[in-house]
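To whoever is on call:

I kicked off a structure prediction for a single chain this morning and the downstream step that reads the tokens threw a length-mismatch warning. I double-checked the sequence; it's 173 residues and nothing unusual in it as far as I can see. Pasting both halves so you can look.
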Amino acid sequence: MAFGSSIQRAVDGAETVTLWLARHWLALANSAFLLALLGAMAVPTMRWGGLHEPADLLFRAYQLVCHQQPERSFFLLGYPMAFCQRDVATYGSLALAGLLFARFRGTISPLPWRWYLLSLVPMGIDGLTQLFGLRESCWELRLLTGGLFGITTAWLAYPYLDRFSKAVLETQP
């Protein structure tokens, strides 16, 4: 009897979490992208304020998602941010697109896949030609290609995520 009730409590808990995520996924995504940007800006701010150990710890955490090459990073208060320029544009445009999606929710159709794939070409060319030493990119191209990637990713994914979350919520009595 106790085993069955434990299973039922686990199922009920999973259902509660699923419904909560279905209701709040956009706020969570927007918050995550904004917090990622704030954290990237917090590193140079903490270093400037003399908090080198926590800044170094946070900087190392960002190495999981970014190469952090100083020559491809913005500097704030004399110190490099924890994100490269392209990642600043990507996360910033994902946050901006999420806020715009919240405003125009229900009126935006998903970006067609072919247009999404086409939108990746500029970043691919910029990144690969730089990677193979054929040329050095500039901050303007990194911002443009990262921003294009972030906006089109949100445009593709958010309408689908919204439909899915509505479908989950509609299954409830």
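Update from on-call: the warning came from a stale cache, not from the record. Cleared it. Sanity check on the structure: The mean pLDDT is 95.
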